[in-house]
Amino acid sequence: MKICRAKDYNDMSRKAANLISAQIIMKPDCVLGLATGSTPVGTYRQLVEWYNKGDLDFSEVLTVNLDEYKGLTRENPQSYYYFMNENLFGKVNINKNRTFLPDGTEPDSGKACENYNEILRAVGDVDLQLLGLGHNGHIGFNEPGESFSTETHCIDLSEQTIKANARFFETMEEVPRQAYTMGIKTIMSARRILIIVSGEDKAEIVKKAFFGPITPQVPASILQLHRNVTLVADEAALSKC
Ligand code: GLP
């Protein structure tokens, strides 16, 4: 695992955006695996800035997102579909027909997951998978205790994750309890993984995930076994390592 130290959140975002840009420049029709959450917002902002300067072209890029809340419509500002449009897709020249997320509006979990698995199979290998890190070590929405060999599935979110996500919703009742997520097996099949982490509140989990034992209790720890992982983290997140 390569560890790239960043000074702070902005520096982390710029370093991560640099790696994504390099991927797009080297292979304009690359497949990017994308993430949501607050961590990648700065990375997307930087990519948009470089796009506006004429340095980046997304016209041939294809994207697959990690996850989506079950039950939220695309118009719901908390849906990941909405997030991706707000932060990236609506601001660059990407072809929307080449952007994919699990369908949160499909009530039949089996069907939603099978449909997304079919898309992922048709798309082929992800060239670069961007990941954030949950406070309990989750990646995508793969929560602690799950098998490392899953594909897309419906997950009951942990209490900790529901609480962490509550800040984005007006009431606790609105916070989704379930989500569709790409599985660890699929994440691990990406050619290259870029995981970004910022803030002191993630320092403990960074230490556990990347310097502790590999265990399903800390889903991100499996990344230690991937042959091409770059961790871009700021000093606060690396402060306990
Ligand atoms: C959510 C997302 C994850 C993300 C995590 C961390 O659970 N499904 O993909 O990595 O939150 O979020 P944040 O970056 O806001 O800390």
Topology:
Elements: E1 2-6, H1 9-26, E2 31-34, H2 41-52, E3 62-65, E4 67-69, H3 80-87, E5 99-100, H4 109-123, E6 128-131, E7 153-156, H5 159-165, E8 178-181, H6 184-188, E9 193-197, H7 203-211, E10 229-234
Parallel strand pairs: 1-10, 2-3, 2-6, 3-5, 6-9, 9-10
Antiparallel strand pairs: 4-8, 7-8
Bound molecules: 2-amino-2-deoxy-6-O-phosphono-alpha-D-glucopyranose.
Task: Give the count of helical stretches.
Answer: 7
Q: Any low-confidence stretches, pLDDT <50, length ≥5?
A: none
CATH topology, anyone?
Rossmann fold
How many domain modules?
Answer: 1
What does this structure look like?
The protein has 241 residues and is α/β, with parallel strands linked by helices. The protein has a single domain (2-234), classed as Rossmann fold (3-Layer(aba) Sandwich). Helix content is 31%, strand content 17%. It contains seven helices and ten strands. It has helices spanning 9-26, 41-52, 80-87, 109-123, 159-165, 184-188, 203-211, and strands at 2-6, 31-34, 62-65, 67-69, 99-100, 128-131, 153-156, 178-181, 193-197, 229-234. It has a seven-stranded parallel β-sheet, with helices on both faces. A three-stranded antiparallel β-sheet has the order 4-8-7, covered by helices on one side. α2 links the parallel β2 (31-34) and β3 (62-65). The mean pLDDT is 96. The protein binds 2-amino-2-deoxy-6-O-phosphono-alpha-D-glucopyranose. Residues 35-39, 66-67, 132-134, 140-141, 161 line the site of 2-amino-2-deoxy-6-O-phosphono-alpha-D-glucopyranose.
